[in-house]
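Intended use. Records like the one below are meant for learning the mapping from a protein sequence to its folded structure. Do not use them to infer anything beyond what is encoded.
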Amino acid sequence: MRLHRLDITAFGPFGGAQKVDFDDLSAAGLFLLHGPTGAGKTSVLDAVCYALYGSVPGARQGGSLRSDHAAPGTRTEVTLELTVAGRRLELTRQPPWERPKKRGAGTTLDKAQSWLREYDASAGAWKDLSRSHQEIGEEITQLLGMSREQFCQVVLLPQGDFARFLRADAEARGKLLGRLFDTHRFAEVEKRLADRRRAAEAEVRDGDAELLADAHRMQQAAGDAMELPGLTPGEPGLAEAIMGAAAVARSTARERLTIAHCARAAAESAQAAADGALAAVREVARLQRRFAEARERAGRLEERADAHREDRLRMERARKAEAVAPALELREEAEAEHRRAADGEARARALLPDTFADAGAGGLAAAARRAAEELGGLESARRAEQRLAHVIDERAGLDRQERADEDVLHDAENWLGGWEATRAGLQSRIESAQEDATRAEQLAVQREPAQIRLRAARQRDAFARDTDEAQTHVLASRERATEAKAHWLDLKEQRLNGIAAELAANLADGEPCAVCGATEHPAPARKIAGHVDREAEESALAAYQRADERRAEAERRLGLVREALAAATAEAGDAPTAQLAEQTEELERQYEDARRGASGLHPAREELRRAEQEHERRTLAQQEAALRTASRVAHRDTLDREKATLDEELAQARGGADSVSARAAQLERRAALLTETAEAARTAEDTAQRLKDADARLADAAYRAGFDTPRAAAEALLDDAAHRELQRRLDAWQSEEAAVRAVLAEPDTAAAAQQPPADLAGAEQAASAAARRLRETASARDAAANRCVELDRLSARSATAVRRLAPLRAAHDRVARLATLTAGTSADNERRMRLESYVLAARLEQVAAAATARLRRMSSGRYTLVHSDDRAGRGRSGLGLHVVDAWTGRERDTATLSGGETFFASLALALGLADVVTDEAGGVRLDTLFIDEGFGSLDEQTLDEVLDVLDSLRERDRSVGIVSHVPDLRRRIHAQLEVVKGRSGSVVRQRGGE
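Structure written out for the chain above:
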């Protein structure tokens, strides 16, 4: 992969468009990227990463990519031209952009966009490949063969990360190597094996739990004949112990079943004998009770003999009276009908006048005919009365119309009288609103500049306060950084003074001294009180570095605040904020007054339009009312003449009534009452004659039946209920008498009555005791049989479960051995190395070998990086990294290297890692690399050696960009890319290697 060109617009600290020609910089092999702190050196590398992957390195994600110095109308854009896998590509990316709206105020959000083009050498032109974020990302990842994290570690070499890698423990190294070499699949293998082990263990444990549950059920079924083994699910031997205990329980249960069967047979024989004796005693007791009951019933019949004879005589008289019953019924019906007719006649006569009190049926009928004839003569008078009501209503309607028209004429005259004044007032309102609208438009043009100046003045005041605070903070930060540096230098000097004691602490008898090589140590130096060790020095150094970083951050913030203050002052001018606020407020007040006046323009026009429409409507209504008034005069005279004629005709027809209808209603009621009373009188005469005839027939029928009077016959007659009750008593007497005679004549009953009373209670007690003994023995036999069946069933199920669990136990043993081996917890894994750590250890060994080739040159053959798989304390092994010092022949941990040694060791490690990751990614050639910082910790000779190593990369046609603040590098490296910061944003200045 080789970079050719990078175009940056409104990205990071770069407010305008910047261009970087990597072809020109790469011609010299080495080029320097330098500039002051905060200028944007790292942002150049972020732009390369963003163009390729659409995001910046992980530590700087989450912030806005757009430059705060960019103009509102300039969109953020990054374009990168590169060659990868023999293809020349151009990548252009634009992040989401909140730009000003083209019409109106406010902003609108444009989505992120991406373009991928490829240069066609045959056509000599660029051709579009894709505009999809996903497709472009997949294409670049496939061509480079590495993810964004791998690219940032391999191409953008962060020296600080690799220095921490040298000092890190095995777990931290494992995380970094795992991200670079994608060993996630091996970790997944470990996890899958652990999951399978847990799953198999759970299955075996569940199977043993089910087996033990069946054993508890067998123990419950067997009672005290079975003892359970003292084992838990998952322990060896549980199945065999349960099956043995089950066999003993089944044998004991079958012996108890045989004993229960014999006891039940004996109880059945005893119960049969007791039941026979109880049946005989019960039969004798029944016959004795039957004879005693028959004697009691005979005594009760003798006591009721007189009443029975009276009932027989009453039944005979009732049968004779039945011949007189039809005549009695006819007489009662005739009497009831006559009473109803007489009552109806009395009620009808009570409604008539006293003049008809003695009139017969014929006289009443003649009076009804005369009333009907008079009613027929009133029909023409009714029609005249209806016409009169209609004439009166129509005359009243004319009066109402006349009053309404008078009101209309009066309102129209009043309204039209003030029309001219109303129209002039509305015209004046319209002209005033138009003037206010013109004034509002003029004031609107002046508002926005005044508001902008006021906002800038307020920001100017706020930035002035922030500048004072930032200045104070910078002075305090500088003082703290100076104090922290002095403290660190003091501790460093104290440690150097006592370094002999620190070295002597590691001496052992028989082991060579790291300084002189002697194996005898007669007088090793001793630590004095207040000795400063390495940890204290490094802690002071870290405190100084943190204080220096805070100082730099405070200075950067002070610069930003000063730039913002200058920009706000340039926009607001020197006018005080209060004066600008007063001017803006006055302008706003005038503008609001003009707007309120202009808002009345449309309502005034609408009101004028409605007033003109009302003027037309009222003029037309006035004319129509005048025409209706003239046409009503003739119609009113006609109605008055017709009403006088109808009044004269109806006065004769009404007579003494209020109206013709009232007179007709009187005649209708009189005719109906007379007709009804005449009919009631004829009905009363007919029913009186039928009652006289019924009395004669009743007297004749009573005499022929043998009764002296009709009343005696009526008293002897029985109704249906009394007849049935009397017949029931007679039949019951006869039936009871026959039944008593039959029982007393039975031979068995008479013989049983001669015997002593039967002992039924003793026989029942003996039979109950025999039945109870039979139930107890039957229950015992059933319980023993059920116990045998249940034990057989549970034993068979347990045997099946044991056979089913056998292959699960074997599979669990195999998976458990593999899982513990890959997890590093097995006794067979002597170094306790996990599978992922084993793979990473192999990769780390390759990285150490590749890094050593360059480390030897940088250290003049002194240092060599080696991989160690020794265990660290009680931890796991596999990711140890040591350095071999050729001067002493000793192997030590990389954490003991000095600052300069740590730099070129981490640089060699980074270059070696780049080679290994490149090979892992499919051998993609990396022709452009960047190395970030760390050169300031090297002396002049070591710096020359490091630069020689980096310069040797050109042998493979590579170009290396060094990101550094070291001034000496500007003299040694001629190809330079300088980032210069300013108030309007940073710019790049490029100088080739010629």
